[in-house]
Design goal:
alpha+beta; OB fold (Dihydrolipoamide Acetyltransferase, E2P); 56% helix; 3 domains
Length: 465
Amino acid sequence: MYNSYMTFKRLMAAAALAAVVLTGTVHQARAQATAQPATKNYKDQGEYDIYNEVTKDIVGNNFPKAVTDLDTWQSKYPTSDYKDARAVLYVRAYAGAKQFGKAVDAAGELMSKDLDTTFSDPKSGPTDVVTVLFNTCTAILNVQNPTPAQLAAGEAAARKLLDYNRKPEGVADAAWGDARKQLQSVAKGTLMTLAVMPGQQAMAKTPPDCATAETVFSKALQDYPDNSFISYNLGRALNCIARSSPDKAAEVGPKAIYEFIRAAVTDPTLGGSADGKKISDYADSVYTTFHGSNDGLDAIKAQAKTSPLPPAGFTIETATAVATRKQNEFKEKNPQLALWLGIKGQLADPASGKQYFDSQLKDSAVPKLKGMLLDGKPACRSKELLVAVPLPDAQGTPTAEISLKLDAALTGKPEAAEIQWEGVPSAFSQDPFMLTMDTEKAKIEGLKSTPCAPPVQKKAAPKKK
């Protein structure tokens, strides 16, 4: 989804100006220099003419023709005094013609030598070296499936370019300073890209090589701990392992989420290659999906800001684990309510509630339950009590769910209060929901009643005289 090379290609484009400052006139300068006496000589006018044609091709950005002319030069004059200079021109021409693998191969042959010794001329030497190093850096990033030798050449070029400080003669100090800063940016970008390239190649396989990708990105993150692009891709690799190996999901899943969060809190644009809001939203969503809520997310964000990798033993509780923990905590605090909710849940199931009552609940003693007495039937000297079992945070007027059939009538009027009882289910209705239980008046705890009001006596009509 995201182009891993986008950021670095922009760096390459920015640094191209610096390279032009250093290399733009090198070939013309060399052509002029060849008119002077030197220890190196062209074999004949024909070699000079081919050389001159190559330089014109490159100055005119006609790189495919430059490659053809270089091949002619190589074929006719294989032992030229200018074979090293020709190798530099090959690197430049191959890179310009987008034959990136050949550009890196040509540069690899050169870099087996001491470049500053090979190109010792104080005017043209530094520009030759920069041409080789710079074009190798740009080329290696565009080689599809580079060989180990090409990767080694690209890394060597980037490291040499990063430290290179041999100013060409005739270039102002300020111009060289600006150019060097930009070339160093190219070198750093190349090194980082090469560090993650094997990981991206592993993820691009079918099926992805998740384990290799995880190893590559973990190592790269150690070298570049503040790079959010690497954190994000390490998260992808870990996520890949979790999907392909479910037995490892509990271990690597939380680590993947941590890396997504790390990327989001350091630079959600991933170095300018992604939509920052989408990355931030994604990091939040994978956490809440895994955990079941955003509880604890802010704490992990704060932790991720300070460390590119999670601490040893890092984990995130799954939504299932959270639900189980809360259920167990609820059972410990409210054992009777939890018992009733379990019974009610099975009774309320439209498909199996009636069967559950008939086969498992009816005529079986139920452990002590707790509820709120709402009313008695009849209101005085009741033989039936209507009870609700509300949740601790329930709002509004509770609804009766249980009818207690008493073995003997009360002597007064029952008061609304919390009661506990033991009973045996004897009947059940799903709509309206009502479980009827037979119980003994003596087994009801907390039951209070008030004396019934005496019946109103009607006055006898006066006798007629």
